[in-house]
Amino acid sequence: MRRTGSFLAACALLAGVLAPLEARTRKADKLMAEGRKAEVRKDWDKALEYYESALAEDPSDAGYLLAVRRVRFQAGQAHVDRGRKLRAEGNLQEALIEFQKAVSLDPSSSIARQEVQQTLEMIQREKQRPEPSKPEERGLTPAERARQQTYSKLERIEPPPELRPLSRQPINLRMANQPARVLFETVCKLAGINVIFDPDFRQDPTASRNHSVELVNATLEQALDYLAVLTRAFWKPLSANTIFVTSDNQTKRRDYEDYVVKIFYLQNVTQPQELQELATNLRAITDIRRVFTSTAQNAIIVRGTTDQVALAEKIIHDLDRPKSEVVIDVLVMEANRARTRDLAAAIASAGTAGLNVPIYFTPRNPVLLGGTTPTTPSTESTGTSSTTTQPTGAPGGYYPYSYGYPYGYGGYGQYGYSQYAGTGTSSTLNQLISMARIARISTNDFSLTLPGALLEALMTDRSTRVLQSPQIRVADGMKASLRIGDQVPIATGSFQPGIGVVGVSPLVNTQFQYKDVGVNVDITPRVHGQDEVTLHVELEISTVRDRIDIGGIAQPVIGQRKAILDLRLREGEVNLIGGLMQDQDTKSVTGVPGLSKVPLLRRIFSSESVERNQSELLIALVPHIVRTPGITDVNLKPVAAGTDTVVRVSYAPPPEAAPQVPKPAALPPKPETPAPSQAPPAPAEKPAGEAKPAAAPQATRIITRPEKITTQAGAVFTVQLEVENVQALFSAPFRVKFDPRLLRLNEVRAGSLLSGDGKQIVFTHNILNDVGEAIVNLNRVPGAGGVNGSGPLAVLVFQALGAGQTAVSFPGLTLRNYQLETIAVEPPELEVSIK
Fold this sequence. Notes:
Mean pLDDT: 78
Number of helices: 15
Strand content: 35-45%
Number of strands: 36
Helix content: 10-25%
Shape: flat
């Protein structure tokens, strides 16, 4: 009873201690469950609160501790992400609060402390600004601000200057005996651009000489190039409206010619060799010395003059074309047939025609060692060996056919050296006889097996048909390989360590290589134009025909049929590769030598086997061009590239947009025609004082004042060329034709019509009295618009040289408005009578 009472008291005490612990664990588990739910909702703060409460309930639970540490990191990182988002929006104070929460939740987070420090610096920077910055700029970190400033600077890097004249009107100019400076200044004034000359340009002998030039419908760049060739000058744009002119020599070009750096990202060059080849071509063709390749970005970096880089861009654009692609249908058709015939009616031994009778030595009273009894020899055995067993613990003895036991005690056997310990192992022994019985050996000690008969008549006919049709798609110049079949291992060598080392296996190690067996196709296409392709084909059909034993390893015997050829086909053309035929006949005779050749007896003492194998292989190749480089007329067009010493690329003028023609106004509806029976109403009288409708505008015309001149020889007279009723007049180039034997043109002055509104005009003239001609150009400056009205266009001063009747004409007189549209007029003609 005492023992029972003590046991019950102990149980009650243990239950009182465990009950609070069990209840406490159930509460912690409930908190963990709530924490997991909060974690699923991505509410990391709430999950951390639950996990910390669970850990407070049971601090010894490692699972609670791991959950707290994991969620503490997630909660801190969530506040860091939220703070970065707020900072990017420009809310620095809210972002600082989030970063501080992250530090309070996870004090070990170094990234949170860095973000707090960085945000404080940004807030201090904003306080020092006189004006608040934009929200997107306020949230930039110092590193982001530096990157933005760098990118902004890169955006502001200017490309090579390109001329943008105020007027793209074609230039028509004829000047005689003028220095280079005057020629360049005149052309630049016509286009509305500025010109700056090198201070040494005046001392250049070529520039100081006078030149004559005639330009007809030339663009600004063409006119400047003509003058540069004529005066041996070199010009380059400094800005959109200014050019610089200096002497054309190596020194001046080295001092003043601009260089450009440009990166070309290639789209269709895939091999490093192709990239290097393209770079080599650029160096050789464009004379660019600094050409570099970037294999990682598949790009080429060049630095050269503006024209050299432009020529390099043209070359890269023409060479970086997508490669042609070809789809090749490969049809492999193989037919095999094997016929076998075996005939035999003969004496046979062991199932083979012929005599094969072995004689066995089977002594009647053999000597047995170790007290064992011999086993009865089998009649099918090929030797005279039997099996004996050495009892456990028996001493060693002579055991022929025993090899290589590396322990114990032994002696010499019949065919080798034998060592063993008496452990009850079995050995194969010959039948032994004592020396005293050798003289008593008789035919009773030998045995043999009698031959039997073989009757065989067997025929086999086997047909095989193989059809394979793989399809390959390959790019131009690339090699495509197709392998259909198996990989067969082939032993290539073996080695065995000569010295035993710890950790090295003493076994023989054999190396193997794997050979592809089946249909192996290697094709390299080369596309010519749109519809022809050259194929380099290596086709191999191989099979494992047999296996032979070499050094204990079964090596495969691989039969193959291989064709290597180059052929040129049209797109979709079928090419057949035939003639791979094989016909093999085999006849074998097995029997008794001599008797198998006797005409009658050979049927009894021999057997005959006939085998015939026939195989034929047919291969068809069908190419289909599915992609071409897409070479256009722009790629085929030749490019003017300057001289041998200077690379020069010229551009055609950009096409100008056609002026918009206003739509015609809708015509008013026609009035209804009154009926014939009704008289038309009388027109109403106009009230007094009503204004008359405006008269239609008069046509534009050009006249000379006076229209006819009568003068004396040697006298000087003035002719005024006037324009009447013109609208939006902008330019008026013309020529003056006269008889140089009777007249001489002394002077040409611009009239007041084009400059009547105070705008500047461009006026050039070239008088050629030797041929009786003068070229006059009158233009308003670009952007000045046109003038309206009537007035003098030009004033011409002539001198009469001799008596006679002549005329002064104005061929090529063309009036244009500010839209460079021609105003239709009839050139006048002045009659001159000289007495």
